[in-house]
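Hi support team,

I submitted a single chain yesterday and got back a structure, but I'm not sure I'm reading the token output correctly. Could someone confirm the output below corresponds to the sequence I sent? I've pasted both exactly as they appear in my results page.

Thanks,
R.
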Amino acid sequence: MPKNNRELPSRAAVIDVVKELRSVIFPGYFWNDSAAKVFPEYFAGYRLNDLYDRLKEQIEIALLYAQPELEQEGAAEEADRICAGFFEQLPEVQQRLLKDVQAGFDGDPAAKSKEEIISSYPGLFAIYVYRLAHLLYKEEVPYIPRIMTEYAHGKTGIDINPGATIGDYFFIDHGTGVVIGETTEIGRNVKLYQGVTLGALSTRQGQQLANVKRHPTIRDNVTIYSNASVLGGETVVGENTIIGGNTFITESVPANTKVSAKSPELVIKKSRSAVSKTDVWDWQD
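Hi R., thanks for writing in. Yes, this is the structure output for that exact sequence:
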């Protein structure tokens, strides 16, 4: 329940900011406002000013709720500082996202164009939301970073904790079921397929490990295929490594390595039309 007669940040308001910032990061793709077409040179500035005010309001609400001792004036000043830093970093975020788009295009032969990736790929959308949320996570803004990434999780099935550290040229192909934990570190040019878990080993210590590295480190130029699980804070996957599908890894893997699971034994039965009488139970009264 809300405490101290203070409200939580609005999930709907935060999600609206995420949606509308996409039209600024990727201009021309998501603008629905007719003014964007008529006055494109002014529209981005207008939209940014509006989004600044709306995000600042939600950050201030979050700070006041999380810190009952904080006064309104102090919360407003801190929210303004955080919001200013966030918007100052948007050009850098845009450049990183364009590298992610390039990684998607280079890594997916089914992609017909970069425009297709920007406008339709769920992996890129989840990465876009993560890169915004990570900026606020680093500033220790409560609630809002997780609201952002859980929105993307619900939309795409891709769960990226805002605390994860992810390098440039990152690509998630297909994406459904991907989990990236809070203390995961991912280098440059890493590609993940659906169902990959970069997680923590199960523990009963819970909150005692809140500030401990619990998730793996993935070095540069690594590909991890579908349904692989890489677990543990001490687990490091070296650069230029390929992790095969359906593998379960809880210890470090050297660089320049290929890891695969043994193929399971296949049991092939005859089709129903080919089953002989001797293969069928003869039930008698």
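A quick pointer for reading it: The chain has two domains: 1-143, 164-261. Let us know if anything else looks off.

Best,
Support desk
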